[in-house]
């Protein structure tokens, strides 16, 4: 889902240090010693990973009751695909890189069930030279949240106008007082960089596309100022705060409890708000007063290219199991103690239609996900090198107010 601020925190640091793949669950035991076991790595930063594993496992069992399924830990932000994982879910920021390195097995069109159900820009963005290499599972984008009762902010659709309303936060504490300042998580260096890239698109009115990536020697003053204003509205201590245990949803809970006057976060943040989510107004936003260029992150599922021939048919079935409407509807439905759904954005239209009757907010989320001008956020074949350079350049500029030097 980035984007992602879901990947901020201690947990991510531990994964980076370990840089290993580990088996964490076996939902379906092998029933005969000669039956293969397939392996899958789901996206690791989800509100309820257990619900995803349960949904995938249940669906797989109906297709292949005699084939075991191992759930592996793997993180695309820090590691390349591994030889011991058959199917894996990754942030499509890395799509061009994975294709260039030959990590992904092409997917025949007839192995994707109900392909017309997949939101078009997401499916198209996972093609390279006409070949499908991955299937969209989830979408993700930053949303601006305000309270419905705060009518002064109800019409705010951009950071410039929000800054005019909120101004610089006076108290530089980790948790804002009630109805004070902006809650936003910029604690991860990649977040600051990605926000800057998003702001570049809004300031120029154009999506830079997968290639070329932005020129780091020519910083956009307007884009940089937009991210700096988020930092000023939130206060340096709060935007850089990392909760104990790497809880990515602590700010969402604070906002639900009354802290802050506005909040920037993903749709899945509402899973931590409980019933208070119904009292929120949510929308996409522009980083400038110019028209928003809406960018969507995508979590995509793929098959490793080196998979043995005898496992390919099972791998295609597993790929479809991970991304099909049945699995996604079950995974996203209310499973938390509060009885709320995960509020993630599925890449299939029918899943919204299935969820909306029980969870009306999914009607609004469908409008956001299907907006015709949405662009799939990708970062080119040199994504790892680019972010290494960008994270040295952009975050320090965001945290200061001096003019950037070449």
How are the SSEs placed, and which strands pair?
Layout: H1 10-18, E1 22-28, E2 37-41, H2 49-63, E3 68-73, E4 87-91, H3 95-100, H4 120-124, E5 127-128, E6 131-132, E7 135-140, E8 143-147, H5 159-166, E9 178-183, H6 189-204, H7 221-234, H8 236-239, H9 250-256, E10 260-265, E11 280-283, E12 295-303, H10 309-323, H11 325-332, E13 345-346, H12 349-355, H13 361-369, E14 375-376, H14 383-398
Parallel strand pairs: 2-3, 2-4, 9-10, 12-14
Antiparallel strand pairs: 1-3, 4-12, 5-6, 7-12, 7-13, 8-10, 8-11
Helix pairs in contact: 2-10, 2-11, 5-7, 6-7, 6-14, 11-12, 12-13
Short description:
By secondary structure, the protein is α/β, with parallel strands linked by helices. Helices cover 34% and strands 17% of the residues.
Describe the structure.
This protein has 406 residues and is α/β, with parallel strands linked by helices. It is 34% helix and 17% strand. It has 14 helices and 14 strands. The strands form three sheets. Strands 1, 2, 3, 4, 7, 12, 13 and 14 form an eight-stranded mixed beta sheet that branches. The protein is globular.
């Amino acid at each position: 889902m980035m984007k992602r601020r879901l990947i901020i925190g201690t947990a991510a640091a531990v994964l980076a240090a370990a840089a290993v793949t580990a088996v964490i669950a076996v939902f379906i035991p092998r029933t005969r010693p000669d039956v293969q076991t397939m392996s899958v790595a789901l996206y690791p930063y989800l509100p309820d990973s257990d619900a995803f594993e349960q949904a995938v496992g249940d669906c797989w069992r109906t297709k292949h009751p005699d084939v075991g399924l191992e759930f592996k830990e793997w993180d695309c932000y820090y590691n390349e695909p591994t030889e011991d994982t058959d199917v894996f879910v990754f942030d499509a920021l890395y799509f061009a890189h994975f294709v260039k390195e030959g990590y992904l097995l092409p997917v025949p069109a007839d192995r994707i069930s109900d392909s017309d159900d997949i939101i078009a820009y997401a499916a198209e963005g996972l093609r390279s030279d006409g070949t499908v290499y991955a299937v969209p599972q989830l979408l993700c984008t930053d949303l601006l949240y305000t309270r419905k009762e705060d009518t002064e902010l109800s019409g705010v659709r951009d950071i410039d106008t929000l800054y005019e309303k909120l101004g610089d936060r006076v108290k530089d504490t980790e948790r804002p007082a009630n109805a004070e300042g902006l809650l936003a998580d910029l604690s991860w260096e990649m977040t600051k960089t990605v926000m800057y890239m998003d702001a570049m698109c809004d300031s120029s009115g154009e999506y830079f596309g997968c290639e070329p990536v932005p020129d780091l020697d020519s910083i956009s003053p307007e884009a940089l100022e937009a991210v700096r204003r988020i930092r000023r509205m939130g206060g340096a201590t709060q935007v850089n705060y990392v909760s104990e245990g790497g809880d990515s949803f602590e700010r969402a809970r604070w906002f639900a409890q009354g802290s802050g006057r506005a909040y920037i976060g993903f749709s899945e943040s509402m899973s931590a708000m409980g019933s208070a989510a119904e009292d929120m107004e949510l929308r996409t936003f522009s980083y400038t007063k110019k028209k928003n260029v809406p960018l969507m992150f995508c979590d995509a599922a793929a098959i490793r290219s080196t998979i043995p021939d005898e496992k390919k048919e099972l791998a295609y079935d597993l790929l479809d199991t991970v991304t099909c409407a049945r699995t996604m509807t079950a995974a996203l439905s209310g499973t938390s103690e509060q009885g709320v759904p995960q509020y993630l954005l599925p890449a299939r239209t029918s899943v919204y239609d299935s969820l909306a009757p029980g969870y009306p907010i999914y009607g609004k989320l469908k409008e956001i996900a299907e907006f015709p001008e949405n662009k799939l956020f990708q970062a080119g074949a040199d994504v790892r090198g680019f972010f290494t350079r960008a994270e040295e350049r952009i975050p320090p500029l965001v945290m200061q107010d001096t003019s950037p030097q070449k």
